[in-house]
Each structure stands twice: as C-alpha cells, then as structure tokens.
Amino acid sequence: MSEARSYPRHVKTDAGEIEFRMMARADEAAVLAFAQKLPTHDLLFLPRNISQPKVLSAWVNEIERGAINSLLAVKGGAVVGCGTLVRDPHSWSPHVGEIRMVVSLDVRGQGVGRALSQETFALALGAGLEKLSVQMTVDQQAAIALFESLGFKAEALLRDHVRDVDGRKHDIVVLGHNVAQVRAQMEAYGLPGAVQH
Ligand SMILES: CC(C)(COP(=O)(O)OP(=O)(O)OC[C@H]1O[C@@H](n2cnc3c(N)ncnc32)[C@H](O)[C@@H]1OP(=O)(O)O)[C@@H](O)C(=O)NCCC(=O)NCCS
C-alpha cells in the first residue's frame, strides 16, 4: 500500500512545514508523549485509550502485522498528529476502511488535520478500498466539518455509546464515504484522474 504513495512527504501548513511519514516501532515513545498530552475527551472515538503504554505497544504490533497503517504528522521532530487506516481483510467488510485521526491541541486550526485527512484518504484509495467510515463524539464539530467537506455523510448515531473517565456517557456519530460510487461518478463525467492519488 505504501508503494502507491511515497513517504516522507512535506506539506506547508499555517503551523509551518509538516513531515508526513508512516509510523513504525521506533516512534513508540514519541507517539506516547503526543497521546498523553491530548485531552482524554478527544480519545473517546478510539476503541482503546492510546495514552496507555500497553495499548500503544499493541498498536505498533498491529502496524507490524499489516492490519493498521498509521501516518504521523511531525513538526520539528515532535509528533503533532496521527492518521490511521484500519482494515480487516478477513471480515465480511474487506472493502471497508476506518479512518481515525487526531491532532495535538497546540497546532489545531492551522491546516494539519486537513492535510493529514487528505493523506490518509489517499492511502485508503491506494489500498483499493470501496467504502470509508469515521466516527467521533457528536461534539467534535471540527472533525465532523472536516470529514463532511471530504464527502463523508452521517450514517448512524450511537446513543450513550462511550463512557468517559468520569462515568459520563457520550453519543457517537458514524460518517461514511462510498469511495467506489464517487469514483464511478467521476469516471462517468470523464474525470478518472480526479480521485486518483
Ligand atoms: C479533527 C481534528 C483532527 C482537526 O485537526 P485540525 O488540525 O484542527 O484541522 P484543520 O485546522 O486542518 O481544520 C480542518 C477543518 O476542520 C474544521 N474546523 C477546524 N477547527 C474548527 C472549529 N474550531 N470549529 C468548527 N470547525 C473547525 C474546518 O472545517 C476546517 O476546514 P478549513 O480548512 O476549511 O478551515 C482535531 O480537531 C482533533 O484532533 N480532534 C479530536 C479528535 C477527534 O475527534 N477526531 C475525530 C475522529 S476521526
């Protein structure tokens, strides 16, 4: 999958130049430091709490197994964002990928999330996926706006679906993007290159 798009890649954002590269075992400590600075509320969309070293090391194992591809956004040597593509080729949804993304508080609102989402989206297209999904707590306005601008649409609302550390429950919204349908429409309009990476 990573042959389709080569990394590292450098992108200029309002937060300065950001390097995008695939996450590997050597990044474990830097990603842990990044995750531990994030507000825990911003981690509720994830199945596990990535600010715990055990969870992070399981994540790296999944990367090495090839089940997960994570892209890091790095600024001045520090991890400031992470975009992940999760697939399960042995399930009934081998054509579906889930995107998970988070950016550090100090660089939010400066285009890092948009660039990271585009890179992660390109990874998914390169992997030949037909449908993408993304989920977040309903109060994550920036995340919802960002993914809607990429063509994702609300597909489900899961009430009281996650419980935070204080015991409060939050709703989760699931957005989906039928990439294959969009690709077919583009081709019908004679624009096959428009959705390629
Ligand atoms: C979602 C997230 C990754 C966006 O990162 P970011 O670096 O701040 O994003 P950007 O600065 O590139 O902004 C991207 C878009 O988000 C929207 N946005 C950004 N900040 C916003 C805000 N405060 N309110 C509403 N929309 C906002 C805008 O539509 C913006 O588009 P623009 O480029 O046209 O301005 C970041 O807010 C985050 O980590 N949230 C917590 C984790 C989470 O919930 N992730 C979603 C699960 S996938």
Structure, explained:
This protein is an alpha+beta fold and 197 residues long. The chain has a single domain (9-195), classed as 3-Layer(aba) Sandwich (Aminopeptidase), CATH 3.40.630.30. Helix content is 29%, strand content 34%. The protein is built from 5 helices and 8 strands; from the N terminus they run ββααβββαβαββα. It has helices at residues 28-37, 53-65, 112-126, 141-149, 179-188; strands at residues 9-13, 16-22, 68-75, 78-87, 96-103, 131-137, 153-163, 169-178. Strands 1-2-3-4-5-6-8-7 form an 8-stranded mixed sheet, with helices on both faces. The model has no long low-confidence stretch (mean pLDDT 93). It binds coenzyme A (COA). Coenzyme A binds next to strand 5, helix 3, strand 6 and helix 4.
What labels describe this entry?
about 200 residues, Aminopeptidase, globular, binds coenzyme A
User: What would the principal axes of the Cα set say about the shape?
Assistant: globular
* CATH homology superfamily: Gcn5-related N-acetyltransferase (GNAT)
| Text of the CATH class | Alpha Beta
Instruction: List bound small molecules.
Output: coenzyme A
Instruction: Provide the CATH architecture.
Output: 3-Layer(aba) Sandwich
What sequence of helices (H) and strands (E) makes up the elements?
A: EEHHEEEHEHEEH
> What do the pLDDT scores average to?
93
The helix fraction, in percent, is 25-40%
Please state the CA-atom Rg, rounded to the nearest Å: 16 Å
Record the SSE blueprint.
Elements: E1 9-13, E2 16-22, H1 28-37, H2 53-65, E3 68-75, E4 78-87, E5 96-103, H3 112-126, E6 131-137, H4 141-149, E7 153-163, E8 169-178, H5 179-188
Parallel strand pairs: 5-6
Antiparallel strand pairs: 1-2, 2-3, 3-4, 4-5, 6-8, 7-8
The chain binds coenzyme A.
Coenzyme A binds at residues 42, 45, 99-103, 108-114, 134, 136, 140-143, 145-146, 149.
